[in-house]
Amino acid sequence: MSVRAALVAFLLLVNSAHGQGFADLGRDAEGFAVPVPGTAFDFPRDHGAHPEYRIEWWYLTATLTGADGRDYGLQWTLFRSALRPESGEGWDTPQIWMGHAGLTTSDAHFVAERLSRGGIGQAGVTIDPFAAWIDDWRMESQVEEGADALSDLTLTARSQDFAYDLTLTATGPIVPQGDNGYSVKSDSGQASYYYSQPFYEVAGVLDLPGGPIDVTGQAWLDREWSSQPLDADQTGWDWFSLHFDDGAKLMGFGLREADGDVYTSATWIEPDGTPTPYGDGALELTPLATEEVAGREVPVEWRLELPDRGIDIETRPLNPQSWMDTLFPYWEGPIRFSGSHEGRGYLEMTGYQ
Amino acid sequence: MIVLLDVQNVHKSYPTEEGDLAVLRGVSLALDEGQSLALTGESGSGKSTLLHLSAGLDRPTSGQVVLDGRDLTSLDDRGRASLRRGSVGLVFQQFNLIPSLTVAQNLAFHARLADRHDKDWTGLLADRLGLSGHLARYPEHLSGGQQQRVAIGRTLAARPRLVLADEPTGNLDEDSGDAVLDLMLDLVAEAGAALLMVTHSRRLAARLDGQLTLEHGRIA
Amino acid sequence: MIRAALSALLSHWWRHKVQLAALMIGLALATGLWTGVQAINQEARSSYDAAASVLGQDQLDRLLRADGALIAPQAFVDLRRAGWLVSPVVEDEVRIGGVRLRVLGIDPLTAPPAAAAVDLTGDGDLAAFIGDDRLVFVSPETAGRLPSDPLTVRLSDDLPPGVAIADISTAWSLLEMEGFSHLLVWPEQPYGVPPLEDAAPDLVRIAADGANDVGRLTGSFHLNLTAFGLLSFVVGLFIVHAAVGLAFEQRRPMFRTLRALGLPARHLVGLLGGEMLILAFMGGALGIVVGYFVAAILLPDVAATLRGLYGAEVSGTLRLDPGWILAGFAIALVGTAVASAQSLWRLARLPVLAPAQPRAWSMATSRSLALQAGLGSALLLVAGVLAVFGHGLLSGFAVLATLLLGAALLLPAVLMALLRLGASFARTPLAEWVWADTRQQVPGLSLALMALLLALAASIGVGTMVSSFRLTFTDWLDQRLASELYVTASTEEEAERLRSFLQPLAHAVLPIRSVEARVAGAPAEIYGIVDHATYRDHWPLLQGRDDTWDRIAASDGALINEQLHRRAGLSIGDVVTLPNGWSETVVGVYSDYGNPTGQVIVGLDALADRYPDLARLRHAVRIAPEDAPALADRIRDEFGFTMRVINQDEVKRLSLDVFERTFLVTGALTVLTLGVAAFAILTSLLTLAAMRLPQLAPVWALGLTRRRLAWIELARAVLLALLTWLVAVPLGLLLAWLLLAIVNVEAFGWRLPLFVFPLDWLALALWAMLAAALAAAWPAWRLARIPPARLLQVFAHER
Known about the structure:
The complex is a heterotrimer.
Chain A: H1 4-10, H2 16-19, E1 22-24, E2 27-28, E3 55-66, E4 71-82, E5 95-104, E6 109-117, E7 123-126, E8 131-134, E9 137-141, E10 152-158, E11 163-170, E12 175-176, E13 182-184, E14 191-208, E15 211-226, E16 234-244, E17 249-257, E18 262-269, E19 275-278, E20 284-293, E21 296-306, E22 311-317, E23 323-324, E24 330-339, E25 343-349
Antiparallel strand pairs in A: 1-2, 3-4, 3-15, 4-5, 5-6, 7-8, 8-9, 9-10, 10-11, 11-14, 12-14, 13-14, 14-15, 16-17, 16-25, 17-18, 18-19, 20-21, 21-22, 22-24, 23-24, 24-25
Chain B: E1 3-16, E2 19-32, E3 36-41, H1 47-54, E4 62-67, E5 70-71, H2 77-87, E6 88-91, H3 103-113, H4 119-128, H5 144-157, E7 162-166, H6 174-191, E8 194-198, H7 202-205, E9 210-215, E10 218-219
Parallel strand pairs in B: 3-8, 3-9, 6-7, 7-8
Antiparallel strand pairs in B: 1-2, 1-4, 4-5, 9-10
Chain C: H1 2-15, H2 17-53, E1 61-65, H3 73-81, E2 86-96, E3 99-106, H4 125-131, E4 135-138, H5 140-145, E5 152-155, E6 163-167, H6 168-175, E7 182-185, H7 196-199, E8 203-206, H8 213-250, H9 252-260, H10 265-310, H11 322-348, H12 366-389, H13 392-423, H14 429-480, E9 485-488, H15 492-502, E10 508-519, E11 522-529, H16 533-538, E12 541-543, H17 548-553, E13 558-561, H18 562-567, E14 575-578, E15 582-590, E16 598-603, H19 604-610, E17 618-622, H20 628-639, E18 644-647, H21 648-701, H22 706-747, H23 758-784, H24 788-796
Parallel strand pairs in C: 3-6, 4-5, 11-16, 13-15
Antiparallel strand pairs in C: 1-7, 1-8, 2-3, 2-7, 4-6, 9-17, 9-18, 10-11, 10-17, 12-15, 13-16, 14-15
Helix pairs in contact in C: 1-10, 2-8, 2-10, 2-11, 2-21, 8-11, 8-14, 8-21, 10-11, 10-21, 12-13, 13-14, 13-22, 14-21, 14-22, 14-23, 21-23, 21-24, 22-23
């Protein structure tokens, strides 16, 4: 596919080639804004797009149980990528949008992908009322005046072989990740703005080739924007979002470096939404078992240790073949974990060749 | 002496619009190795036909032609051609040189066709035949006597065991005819080949070891 | 053995270089013209395929507006947001620095994989494609013609000539428009998208066209070229046959000697076959070189023709292609095999003792002449039967082939009869001898004269067709393009403004509205017109009724063009079925030359009723002809470049230009064929020259000078050419009639009246005689200078 390499280059692996050095405070060499620590979020403004940053996403994952008693997982993601730090109207707007939708069962994994340019209305994000969309895939706020726009959402996506339609209701607050929303990604200072809404209760319908299925469960929304998310020698990441049975949440990731080191970061979230960030080294990630996925070895079972919280768990995927065969391919799927604690969550792994 | 050519009771007739025309009516002859035999007779007596049958150029209507121990009548075209190539040399009244080849190429031609080209032998023949000065020329630039010498050289260069000559001097005046014939007889004798020559001249016929006369398709 | 024998066989050619040259030239011409035509066809076809697949049109359905107007950008976004997977394309032509460019604007983000026209995988390619608003992809050939200034040009080898691929926004700025020509539809659509009628009510879906429209439209043109290639090939084969036959006859003594010296017959035939193979390869190689140059020289004109006639872009430069090179060798081998089969066959059955003298190989007996004439008559009969009962283009060409071949076979008998007639007027012994001797020469020259006949007949036939076409076409243009100006607005608002602007200035403003639709199973256009004298007085009706125009004005009935009339078999009184359950009675048929598709004309109101949303953008303007240019300028000044103003004169000039180019190639091929025929005469005369000495020597001995004899020889060749021309005229007229009445109808869907141009024939007679005189000049010159000794030899060598 013709656009693959180009998109990979400027979507998710934008690194030193572009963002080397700071031309100006808060700007990189090409004029893109870079995250600055100590910046407070401004809602609902920050629910919307930040075209002056190179990349941004609205990233929702849900762990579900069907009326048939089986486990399901789904993903809905809208990416934004800027060729230049400008917005604008019309067909020559330098903003490109990409949508990914995934739906996982124990024996199947469905994937769909959409692309659009900004400025023409085919894809975008509005703040009031909040809506994020590409084509007919939509994440729309249903809230009354006053409440946070993201606390009540409807979510749809549709493809040749599947569709889903969900309502999401937040039972807790929005949670900033890292240092009050400033999430550091490497020793050399790469960082992003990052917040989450991990407290969604979900109900809705999945349309599968076998027929519609009613589902309920939990969902997690990540919002992140940046201009230089990875360091030059970082080769990929393993990212966990976990719902503990007692209502607590854990976000943890490890960024793998070319020399074999891993830069880890985690946020422990109390059931009431109080976050505790952990810096590099607090969380330990150990791959336990690999599986051949799309012609490569991918570690699909993991051990997570966060000694500070007495956490020592092992994760298992619902479907080891949860491969997102998109322009930029990666592994993304629902997991269950057990050990010191039990619960469900989502795992994303990138950069496995 | 070994019999090289054995013709036994050969008949040959050609179909014409007025019915079959019998040219040979029971001819027999034998030719030993190294022997020379003249075949004389009137025009239409069947001399040339007998010569052609002996060369395997045509088949008799009945009877047998055995050449070098092989029955020509039982061989196919390929077999007869092979025998002709290997054992027989032909000298025609019309010379039948290949006009697009030079004298030298014509001289070597039959020997090359038979895969036994001997440069020295061919050179010697050219000398003896007085052709050394004409090797690069084409047949059309030679006189009749010279052309016939090329034809004789071509035949002998292939070292045939039997030379069949059909009026070899018929197209030449008497003097050059005699000179060519002398040369041919000498060289045939030197090469140890047998010779069957058709001629209507009794004078020439007398110079060979023996002679046969055909009359109306029979030996007189 | 083999080497010795082969070198002896080949030595013949070394000693007869002119004969070898004739054989080589014959083979090279036959192979070359055929290969050249094939190369042109193949180049064109690969261009069509490239054009057809550049955006996957051959695999993807398309959405477009029935009225042909641009699709608004918002309509695309609405469809996407309704769930439809579609991708926009804007397409139009623009001139950049004098170069005509077909610009295709695409959206790489939504384009289906089948429409991946250019490779954007390089680092930063996509960003540049979308971001650089002057970036276009073109083929290297196109890039060579483009000025570098306003554009950033990148190369893509896969693109057809004259096509530029750009991002939508780039294309818009180049084409100075905003909107989409059509939307590509992904082959698979998501779960439960709404029906198209709801999502986009004014768009129609056109199925993917695997058959490739251009290929179908141009098929007849290529068949025409192929037929010409074949004709040249056949004429070339006459030369090959003559040269091969002569070489075999001359070598009969050699064959006999070889056999006598012991070369088996089968070997001899095999070696001669091998020799022919070698010669065929040499001739074929030469022919391919000739073919390459023929194609390279003709291709630009062919390309211009195809562009003008069908809008098909064909690369003007030729690529060497192993396909037609191999085909060239194959045809050379086949041709040599055909030309030498008879000789080889005879040789294989030749007894060793057969007479060695060159038999008068060409002196056919009166029996074989009668046989040939019988065969010729039979072929003519077949042609007649096919003409009456056959259907389809191929049958049309079969009629042509049998007619030409039959006539060629009959030619010697006809010439003999003519010469006998001529002889009856002879009063002097010399004249009697000349007539008789000429008759004796006919069999020897018959192949060459047949070639001349074919060339002359083709020239008369094609010339008559082209001239008839030109005459008819010019008249038709005058009728059809009655209005002085044709003006097209880009938006409804602009069109509205235009109409009020023109109201006080023009005598009449006639709206033209049309939709594309399928009628009788094929693509067609439906036009709506108003009632006006422009149509009543000028429209080129082939069939009509007294009330034709009243019925159209009353929106009760339809006019159809000749193409639809012939293809669908519709005539006055029949009912033509139009889309959406609409049908009208046919009230007239009009001629519509140059248009490959069907057309229907109805009253404007009838069309507006069925298609209420039809854009009203096009107008025909009536004004005094001398005021038209000024008005055109005023419109351009008032509305700027978005308003397209076309002057009637320009259209006519353009159309005639297209027309002339269309038949330029045919003309060139006719001349080439005539040249080949002249060459055939030359080789035949050279062949006969040596054999004719015994006939000439006695006349010389009786007191005619060699000079006089040479003049007689020359006159004889001219006389034979003239007689052949006499036969060629009726044959050529028959050919023209077939082309106009059968081939054109099948190929293009229209029939033209036949006009005759006797002055052209006279010119052709002069050409034929000149060609024959030139061909006979060298043999005659040689005769005039022949040493008397050679003539005397005839008596010395009397056999």
